[in-house]
Amino acid sequence: MVVVVVVSSSTSSSSSTSSCCCSISYSIVEVVVIVVAVVVVVALAVVVAVVIIVVVVVMVVVF
After folding, report:
1. How far apart are CA 56 and CA 43, in angstroms?
2. Is residue 30 part of a domain?
3. Tens digit of pLDDT for each residue in 3-42?
4. How far apart are CA 56 and CA 63, in angstroms?
5. Are the CB atoms for 7 and 41 separated by under 8 Å?
6. Do 17 and 34 meet the contact criterion of CB atoms below 8 Å apart?
7. Domain tally for the chain?
């Protein structure tokens, strides 16, 4: 759910800035924003996966 929201917001912001057709600096900024958003999404996915694995291991060890 969060991934879809972040991707949709980043794509909508990039489309709005590209439709503005201002200057090269805006394209660089939007690329940086998209890269940061992707890195944050990947980091969140890794954290969630690690938490799930830890919970499963703890459940197996306890029970």
Report:
1. 20
2. yes
3. 444 444 444 444 444 444 455 555 677 788 888 999 999 9
4. 10
5. yes
6. no
7. 1
